[in-house]
Design brief:
Length: 294
């Protein structure tokens, strides 16, 4: 917070002013300074395209203090810069304990520092400890298991701030649930860390809390032509899905990595019997050699 205040001393603009993605974030704050309705910052009669929590707070702050919308961007950015390490620490403390949490929260806050994108910065620092606590049930000694509704409320609040990082974590959640289901079937882990009923409860609460963000675009999608809504937000071809291609070197490496992960997961799910049998065979082969060396 002090470093941010010093860096922005003498200017009423926030980080990066109107450069790159800061431009539409400033535009959102200016829009919400005019109206508390969750409308899009650029298009009339459309709901907010991005999660509105931070720009809505910036706009309402501007309206209450008689500031221009763009002037309210700076104080909220500074406030988020103070809240990021605190929120990260509170979540990491549940996972690793107080002292390690302070170190991890400080390191993550500095390593991922993105003050010009405070919404992205906040979610990035908080989502990993929330995921470990929720999906893998990793808790420090003495920390009780949190009720599903509490974890769901945190999920909903994060969804109201930013959604970009939820895609990879959503994929990781599905893979973790599938992995736990396979292990439960083989008997190597009868109790999954995130039972299906608990997962549904957490997701339902999270969706309910964040409904003001995702429900209006969904209703607009149902009302407007299927080929018209997204194109009002994006440019032609900007939403096309690009699948990995073995022609490009980086994507080829990614495909190799995916194949290796699938192979490793397949070997892991074969159960301990396979490892024991291999251990016995290895011992039979190496036994005479070990005896000779001895």
């Amino acid at each position: 917070g002090a470093a941010g205040s010093a860096a922005l001393h003498g200017t009423r603009w926030g980080w990066a002013a109107l450069y790159a993605d800061s431009s539409f974030r400033t535009q959102m704050a200016t829009r919400f300074a005019e109206t508390p309705a969750l409308v899009d910052y650029g298009y009339r009669d459309l709901p907010a395209y991005y999660p509105p929590a931070l720009p809505w707070l910036q706009g309402r702050l501007a309206a209450l203090t008689d500031l221009a919308g763009w002037e309210a961007v700076k104080p909220v950015q500074l406030l988020v810069g103070v809240l990021v390490p605190v929120a990260a620490y509170l979540l990491w403390r549940q996972v690793v304990g107080a002292l390690p949490a302070a170190a991890v929260a400080g390191l993550v806050t500095i390593w991922t520092a993105h003050p010009q994108k405070p919404d992205e910065w906040l979610v990035l620092t908080c989502l990993l400890p929330w995921w470990l606590l929720t999906v893998r049930d990793l808790r420090a000694p003495g920390v009780r298991r949190r009720p599903a509704w509490q974890l769901g409320v945190v999920l909903g609040l994060l969804l109201l701030v930013h959604t970009y990082w939820f895609l990879p974590f959503g994929v990781a959640t599905l893979l973790a649930l599938g992995y736990d289901a396979v292990r439960a079937r083989t008997g190597s882990r009868p109790a999954p860390p995130l039972p299906l009923r608990r997962a549904v409860a957490i997701g339902a609460v999270g969706l309910a809390v964040s409904a003001v963000s995702w429900l209006p675009p969904l209703l607009a999608r149902l009302q407007l032509p299927s080929d018209g809504l997204q194109m009002r937000y994006s440019y032609l071809g900007g939403t096309d899905l690009r699948l990995p291609s073995p022609v490009e070197a980086e994507q080829a490496v990614g495909l190799v990595g995916l194949v290796w992960l699938g192979w490793a997961a397949w070997r892991r799910t074969r159960g301990p019997d396979l490892a024991e049998r291999r251990g016995v065979r290895t011992g039979l082969r190496t036994g005479p050699l070990a005896g000779g060396l001895a």
